[in-house]
Amino acid sequence: MKRVILIVFAGCLIGLPLAADTEKSSDIEVIVTASRVEEETTAVAAYVTVLTEEELSAAGQSTLVDSLQSLAGVHFRSTSGNAAQAEVSMRGFGENSHGRVLVLLDGRRLNRPDMASINWLEIPIENIERVEVVRGGSSVLYGDNAVAGVVNIITKQGSAGFDIGVSGQYGSYNSNQERVEVSGSTGALTLAVTGEHSATEGYRDRSAYESLAFGTNVRLELDTLSSSLALSYNKLFYQMPGELTEAQMAADPTQAINPADESNNQYLNADIGMSYGPSDRWLLDANLSYGLKFIQSDMVSYPSYTDLTLKTIAFTPKLKTELDLLAGNRLIVGIDCYYDRMTVDSYSDAGRTSTTSEYLLSKATAGAYLTDDLSLFESLTLSAGARYELIQIAAETLKTSGAPLDERELLQSLVYDVGLLFKPLPSAKLWLKHGTVYRYPFLDEIVDLYGWMPVAFNTDLEPERGIDNEIGIEAVLFDALRLAGNGFCLEMKDEIAYNSTTSLNENMEDTRHLGVEAEAAFTPFAWLELSGNYTYTASTFRAGANQGRTVPLAPEHQAEAGAVFRLPINLSAGISGRYVGEQYSGGDYDNSLNTLDDYWLLDLYVHYTPRFIPGKLDLYFGIENLLDQLYASSGYDYGTYVAYYPEAGRTWKVGGSYRY
């Protein structure tokens, strides 16, 4: 199977120039993620996918996770069954994989330096204009976390005139979602405001969640100067049903073992942006951002009662200039400054009447980067970039019954990348890329505040570092067939994972992440769209006692296939199937325990847009996991048994939206 995939991939590389139609090209998409300035996707030496607003809403998707998990190279798993805390994985990373994927909101990072995963409900899906997914390392441009890929969520700006939209959805387990959006413009000023409420009782006992989110974007566009203000707020409550043994899962996958574990969270993001472009060749912009995250966790099963408050301030100016050098030269220089301050308070009871400990952790970051794209010829571009970053991590005790803590550590990183982009046709590109990547430890990886060992500053924990190599292709043939894919080899050193034997976060032996990501989309007729993708990832240990073993929680095979039928009277129907291969449970480094079984998921939906009424009305009905597959996307080795976290069985949903 592996050889077949590689042969097909190589064949595409060889055969592309012969098959392409030199007279036709597709509409060019413009993205900002791959270089931090606007550019066409065909000018990027990377495998990029753009999900538009229409694609996000076509099947009535409830959350961004529903859409992202269908893409090549993107995988999600969850221990609670709710999308808000789903953990994203790219390039075959296992535990804490979300720490190697950078998630941005309008170009500003949502990743925080704690171990909690991204809250995917922070941004109402109605507030999203598009989502850009760039696979591969981007440490030069973005620094920490951008090891395996970058996901950039672009929010809507106000539309011309006045626009209002409402939508609602209801489904299995009393799941419901209500949204409202208002946008408009007057002169140079645009405004967009959205609100969203979503809730469910959950597939499992004690797996309910409820989310309330708001977002607004105000923008002023003048001749050479523009400014923006973006705000978002999310309040989230969710329950944690806990793990099940294999026997418990087979007997009743809906049961819960945790009596009252739950969490109340709040998130606030604010960003002020300024951009000055006196000509097409010069652009200076800067953003000042503030982020607040508050997590109140009641883990009755441990017991543990904690409040985490994390505040982030960021300042990120950059300059772009284009010069007449050979066929063209674009230079981007920038500075990224962040300060994160995290306090963790622990209590003896859920009522928080007595504080047992209080810790203050912080991370100060200052990084500078430079990238240069030199067009050697009209169809050949050489790119290069470098970043130097310095951080200080500090931890101190504000209150404790144990040994006090007052530690600081200074870390630095110097990374680079080089790439070569060849565009034989306007609608085709081939690229090579080589670079280095890194990730700093989470603050609560360095100082384990929730484990069984005495709290201490882990001075032995080193940053993760790696070397990333890629080759890729993308082409549109005859305006009907789109092919894209890449091959990659990511050599990592000092990946961090929890060791249940020592009860410490530790650096693992060297690992290799080798694979292929490929997709195809074909529109043979106006009424039929076919698509599919396949991901092969071999993540293995390269040294130590587990040399040759597979990295846990990293499925080797993933595939997705779908068809959309556009029927008369503005009716469309879609069917999609997703396959995820077996994987070893978290912590099973010697691969000695049972694997998490592979699974197939089949989804159906029907979408109707009547044209006989004013405005735009969309109605849809969908069924997910049609075959009622029993599966677990996540599981962990607890020494004497494997803990499973079942996902939902067959579910249905019905909904609609109206825009005027």
What is CATH's topology name? Maltoporin, Chain A
| Architecture per CATH nomenclature, i.e. the level-2 architecture | Beta Barrel
Regarding quaternary structure, what we see is single chain
Approximate helicity band: under 10%
In DSSP terms (H or I, runs of 4 or more residues), the helix count works out at: 6
Number of strands: 38
CATH superfamily: TonB-dependent receptor, beta-barrel domain
State the shape: globular
Strand composition percent: over 45%
Write down the domain tally: 1
Sheet having the most strands: 23 strands, antiparallel
pLDDT < 50 stretches: 1-26
Kindly report the average pLDDT value. Answer: 90
End-to-end C-alpha gap = 51 Å
Assigned CATH class: Mainly Beta
The computed structural class is mainly beta
Question: What is the CA-based Rg, rounded?
Answer: 24 Å
Structural summary, described in words:
The protein has 660 residues and is mostly beta strands. It has a single domain, classed as Beta Barrel (Maltoporin, Chain A), CATH 2.40.170. It contains six helices and 38 strands. The strands form seven sheets. The protein has a 23-stranded antiparallel sheet that branches. Mean pLDDT is 90; it is low at 1-26.
